[in-house]
Amino acid sequence: MAKVIDPWGSTLIEDYNKLISDFYLDRFDPKEFPNPNRLMRRGVVFSGLDLKVIAQAIKEKKPFYALSGIMPTSEKIHFGTKMVVEMVSYFQQQGAKTYILVADLEAEATRGVSLEEARKRAMEFHIPAYIALGLDPKKTTFYFQSDNIEVVHAAYKFSKKVTYSQFHALYGDSSPDRIFAALTQVGDILYPQFKKRMPGVIPVGCDQCPHILLTRDIVNRMKKENYFPPSATFHKYTPSLNGHFKMSKSMPESMIELPEDPKSACNKIKRAVSGGRDTLEEHRKLGAVIEKDMVFELMKQHLVEDDGELNKIYEEYKSGRMTSGELKEIACRKIVKFMEDLEKGIKKARKDVNKLNFVKL
Amino acid sequence: MAKVIDPWGSTLIEDYNKLISDFYLDRFDPKEFPNPNRLMRRGVVFSGLDLKVIAQAIKEKKPFYALSGIMPTSEKIHFGTKMVVEMVSYFQQQGAKTYILVADLEAEATRGVSLEEARKRAMEFHIPAYIALGLDPKKTTFYFQSDNIEVVHAAYKFSKKVTYSQFHALYGDSSPDRIFAALTQVGDILYPQFKKRMPGVIPVGCDQCPHILLTRDIVNRMKKENYFPPSATFHKYTPSLNGHFKMSKSMPESMIELPEDPKSACNKIKRAVSGGRDTLEEHRKLGAVIEKDMVFELMKQHLVEDDGELNKIYEEYKSGRMTSGELKEIACRKIVKFMEDLEKGIKKARKDVNKLNFVKL
């Protein structure tokens, strides 16, 4: 049986360790990188591929790139996108040439969003949001798939380098639209190398692993072109507030969107599954079950930057001195501040979005 | 079992009638069209799809288009290509807007011919050959797939409108490169309708039937775009000189390329499988077995324009008054003249090829 992760669906991945062994991923070690960010320090980035070559490029100040895409189908993003942007920004700060593409062809083909509408959404929301979340627009190259004829030509060329069976083994599906989408993504991932060979890192959620593996397979089969196989970081999902594995649009109460009305986000936190005990007495005596507390996980992944502050909250809550209600109060204040800052940041970035560095080929 | 015709291979199709019934094709009736050409009059064009709408457009002088492609992988063409060009030219003379695309993306992806090399071959040989064979360049729009971003975008969009199973049923194969090639061809076939809806006819050899059926399926699934499903004419193969079903490069003696050295072509004709009897006496008595005579078939399809002349040859040969050697002498003279004219025509057309009407988007 093929081991399948569906990058378009929401397959549950209960065991990240199993994922590492099934797909021969490397375990991530934050000590290999200078000034690891919150996600790297706290095990949210749990694995990767070929990261030594990136660590080395950083150390030796050699050229490398970081790349990610925008899927302009919705008018919101989510915490998973935030993690991608934070990882791209981290590598950008370490010297990566940075590329952000807008997957407007994929949006049109797979979700029926017209190219015009996709462009509008990307310019008015997605790109400003990426900037608000930490991307330095001055150091970033942006492009729309529909403007980049080199990428679509490459996708066609790569189609010869993969068989139906491999595709099926990686994706568990091989419908023509998925083949187009995946091979266009391979084109995107390798695009920075079309002119100059260099290592590149693609930060992705663990569900996007097949795209990276497909690209690496194709690179291996195109010896003549001599591409670097792409490196990748994989991060965990931000868990659902109602205790499920992954936030999902089908359960609105489980997920906080970005941006979201601060009050609404706060209310969702207040109703979230907690690790507090049934009675206050029990809680004081036994302490919180932190590993089941979705609010603590959200704070760890996203809301508390300082490790000392997070440790203190952990100790207080774990020991039972802090109640679940008190924890939620802190989280609520933090998410309100975060949403307010995000809204401001998006507005500010939107003003200058037309001046950015867009590639058109 | 799926009924499969492989447009990339050389599947034998022994029975054209079976093909008509298996694929629900229409039987071709030359009386529906004004001044039918040699191929139409003589049953070489044996079937079609939706040709009434084309006949009507001709009659009512309404806009319609004819389209074909150039596959610039080799430096020769063959009699099958000649038939396509003759059919396109026929419709052009009846008023069709005419489009010729160069499938350079397909050539690169599936045969490893670089875009530059493909362009060079098309400009120096294929396009001049098409003109030498009857195409009016002044009334033709040419484009390279790699220059036409609208077609590749459309291919991506169409990918959503076909399933793996349909693809497999039509082609008996569904490797990613074939999916790319086929959907890009669908883009090519519909390209003239992107700006203005109109009927179009695609003259093809019967092995290309799946592309037409795929396009018609996709059109039916895209009601909103309101494309006309493409019409098509299907012609028989030019039979192999050694009596096999179809000329093939793997049997060089069986096939005459275009252009070919006149002497070499003549020699191949002299060695061809004939319908002559074992002895002269028998031949005079019983007459030739014309339906097994590859040289007569070649004359009927390509070398004798005038019906009266062909009838006379038929009568003489059938009755045994003309020997197989004499028939071959006539064919030889005709092919020498044809090859000489073709060479001259290509040289002449090559001079003006840069002035043609190329689309670049």
Task: Characterise this structure.
The structure is a homodimer of 361-residue chains. By secondary structure, chain A is α/β, with parallel strands linked by helices. The first copy, chain A, folds into two domains: 16-237, HUPs (Rossmann fold, 3-Layer(aba) Sandwich); 252-346, Tyrosyl-Transfer RNA Synthetase (Orthogonal Bundle). Chain A has 15 helices and eight strands. The first copy, chain A, has helices at 16-22, 38-41, 51-59, 79-93, 104-111, 115-132, 149-158, 164-171, 176-190, 209-221, 262-270, 280-286, 294-303, 307-319, 324-351, and strands at residues 26-27, 45-49, 65-70, 97-102, 140-144, 200-205, 231-235, 358-359. An eight-stranded mixed sheet of chain A has the order 1-2-7-6-3-4-5-8, sandwiched between helices. In chain A, strand 3, helix 4 (79-93) and strand 4 form a beta-alpha-beta unit. The longest helix of chain A is centred in the C-terminal third of the chain and has 28 residues, at 324-351. Chain A is globular and about 70 Å long. Chain A starts with 15 loop residues before the first helix and ends with a strand. The interface between A and B is medium-sized, with 28 and 28 residues.
